[in-house]
Amino acid sequence: MRPEEAADRAVVAAIVALWDAAGLTRPWNDPVADIALASRGPDSTILIARRPDDAADPASAPGGVVPAATAHGGPILATAMVGHDGHRGWVYYLAVAPDAKGRGYGRAMMDAAEAWLRARGVPKVQLMVRRDNAAVLGFYDALGYGVDDVVVRSKRF
Questions:
Q1: Could you write out the DSSP letters of every residue in 16-81?
Q2: Torsion, Cα of 9, 13, 16, 21 (10° steps)
């Protein structure tokens, strides 16, 4: 996502609305600031899948996942924020619209995020899931993601 896309209030509002609907936002994380930060440099982006303008059904081809800067078409069906530090890739805000769930968009977004990281020579990808989110843990298990023996620590400022 380029900075001018992050400045597009309609695109940002649609992304945040999807993240809200998916239960991904938290009061201590400003999603608009996260979008702006992800769009500032070459080491992160937001991938978007949209319903084609001429498709009435969200079951239409879950391909078509592109960086937000080049995403055109109908309503946003899915997103993933992806970035890296040079060694580890991270995926955040994987979200699928409620009317598009179970149709391959989550898998397509993860495939696109992994491809984006591989294209930049990043050797591994990580993500965080809340412990009580059993459905999402099962989704990542099915994609081959394992649990690492690490503790994630954080500090807010």
A1: HHHHHHTT--BTTB-HHHHHHHHTSSTTEEEEEEE--TT--STTS-S--EEEGGG--SSSEEEEEE
A2: -170
Specify the length of the chain in residues. 157
53-67 pLDDT per residue, tens:
655 544 444 455 545
Name the one residue in this structure whose structure tokens are 């769009």.
39
pLDDT of residue 6: 57
Q: Is 79 exposed, middle or buried (0-12, 13-18, 19+ CB in 10 A)?
A: buried
In whole angstroms, give the CA distance from residue 122 to residue 1. Answer: 19
Element (H, E) at 154: none
pLDDT per position as a tens digit, 5-53: 556 888 899 999 999 999 999 999 899 999 989 988 899 999 998 876 6
R_g (Cα) of the chain, nearest Å: 15
d(CA 155, CA 83): 19
What residue has token string 């591994």? 124
Cβ-based neighbour number of residue 51 at 10 Å: 22
